[in-house]
Specification:
8-stranded mixed beta sheet; alpha/beta; binds zinc ion; 28% helix; 14 helices; 6-stranded mixed beta sheet
């Protein structure tokens, strides 16, 4: 047996107008052919796929991996390069038995709304219908009709925060091979739901979503189904074929459908439970002003998290602090290349007037004019302390720490390692010595920050990854879609669609 292994990974935020070019992929990973084997045994999706294939002595044909994190729409040339390289490698063989592909699954390009569906359809056209195509995806994927029609198997992460990359790859690998090896082949059914909910409103560690995942796992353990994925579509994707969905894989199609409907109904009925409790910016500032402990207050600005594809250029909290003439000792990082350049020109120890914020997304993020003192200048390279990604090197580009009153502002070209305290510490901003820390991340920072503070507040802030979905300029989502319509007048069976 011969199997091709591929990977295309990027999470698109449709409200971020900055195109995600090839540079972003280069910074993370572009690997072709044998280079993919360095991911063997690594705790990533491809590591899991390789493991499953090796266990069955499958001849592995390494294809291409193009990998980056979140951002605006992907430059179409990147997707074209991926498809062309994949097809070239497939065509070097007379016949391949299977194609395994690791996708994020919520990806848009500058041309195609459904990048993942387009990729899979292109590969299907080349390999024909006798070849198995098995795809792994993120839990926040948008599983489109095109993807389901062209894949034999689709598996999503079952954890959030995501910690089961390898396991998801392994599930995809074994299930894909099962389509080739078993007499009674696995059948896949998808049920779609017209809903999105903010990603900060649930986790698989506890609460109602964790219970739902455990219910799905119990069906697998009892042998009623083989596999399931519950998709909470990432909510900043504005495309026509959009849905949250459930995929169930079983030996019988009727069984898969029965359980997919069951889990989809439970997911839909939980929708109101996924609303996060948010504080206003003023409330969190007041909490910090009244904080008598020596622990810093963390204002969670997830709406401007570059991890969620937002632009990182918001100074909304700084503006509030200045308006209130607050004296809180505050730390924040802001994507603002012009300000970083001006700081380097101005030099350490000098003052000048800066236009701060709104350099990437001026429609949402305001600009403020303020005189700042240039405290320090940096090359932007730092090493993460972890626990997540300990030892990883990040480069936020030429950067500077500006000071206005008691506020320290790290201005930089990009923000990477949002959730790591070294984003402040490495630039001379010791997080434990501040009274207010503005952290532009959603969940990734909690493990590191909870070591030195329990005063963490999810805050209603503006940004391309706003938790308040009603305030984002959606244009392309289907007409009847939660939370924009309550859909309460419909029976669940009337709104479920896409059964297969
Ligand atoms: Zn995700």
């Amino acid at each position: 047996m011969k199997a091709v292994v591929l990977e295309f990974h990027q999470e698109t935020n449709s409200f971020n107008p900055n195109v995600c070019t090839r540079d972003y992929f280069e910074q993370s990973r572009i690997a072709v052919g044998e280079e993919l084997f360095r991911l063997m045994d690594k705790p990533c999706v491809l590591g899991g796929i390789f493991q499953a294939l090796q266990e069955e002595n499958v001849e592995i044909i390494p294809g291409i991996s193009m990998f980056t994190m979140s951002g605006g729409r992907v430059d179409q040339r990147v997707m074209d390069e991926f498809i062309n390289t994949s097809i070239k490698i497939i065509n070097q063989h007379n016949h391949v038995d299977a194609v395994f592909i690791s996708l994020h699954g919520a990806t848009e390009t500058t041309v195609y709304e459904d990048c993942s569906g387009q990729i899979i359809e292109s590969i299907r056209k080349v390999v024909g219908h006798d070849t198995v195509i098995a795809a792994s995806t993120d839990m926040h994927a948008n599983i489109t009709t095109k993807m389901v029609e062209n894949c034999n198997i689709i598996c999503g992460y079952q954890t959030y925060p995501h910690v089961d990359h390898f396991k998801t790859g392994y599930r995809t690998g074994t299930l894909g091979l099962s389509c080739l090896l078993d007499k009674n082949k696995p059948r896949m059914i998808q049920v779609k739901l017209p809903m999105i909910v903010p990603a900060s409103g649930y986790t698989t560690m506890s609460g109602p979503f964790a219970e739902l995942m455990n219910e799905g796992k119990s069906y697998v353990e009892k042998g009623e189904i083989i596999d399931f994925s519950i998709y909470q579509m990432q909510p900043w994707l504005d495309i026509e074929d959009a849905s949250s969905s459930v995929i169930v894989i079983a030996r019988e199609e009727t069984v898969a459908e029965e359980f997919a409907l069951l889990l989809a109904k439970r997911l839909y009925n939980l929708r109101e439970n996924f609303k996060p409790n948010l504080y206003s910016i003023d409330q969190v500032i007041e909490i910090a002003e009244n904080n008598v402990s020596d622990k810093p207050v963390v204002l969670v600005d997830s709406a401007d998290s570059t991890n969620a594809g937002a632009t990182g250029d918001s100074v909304a909290v700084v503006k509030k602090l200045l308006d209130r003439k607050s004296t809180l000792k505050t730390a924040i990082a802001v994507v603002d290349a012009p300000a970083a350049n001006l700081a380097h020109k101005t030099g350490v120890g000098n003052k000048t007037t800066f236009s701060l914020g709104g350099t990437k997304l001026p429609e949402i993020n305001e600009t403020i004019e303020v005189e700042c003192y240039v405290k320090s200048l940096h090359d932007g390279i730092f090493i993460q302390e972890g626990p997540a990604g300990r030892g990883m090197t990040n480069n936020i580009g030429p950067s500077a720490v500006l000071q206005v009153g008691n506020i320290n502002i790290l201005v930089c070209r990009h923000i990477f390692g949002n959730g790591d305290p070294q984003l402040f510490r490495a630039f001379g901003m010791e997080p434990t010595l501040y009274e207010l820390l503005i952290v532009k991340a959603c969940t990734s920072f909690r493990a590191a920050y909870s070591k030195f503070t329990d005063k963490i507040y999810d805050t209603d802030t503006p940004g391309a990854a706003s938790v308040d979905l009603m305030n984002l300029p959606f244009k392309r989502l289907p007409k009847n879609f939660y939370p924009f319509n309550s859909l309460n007048e419909y029976k669940i069976d009337e709104i479920i669609y896409g059964k297969r």
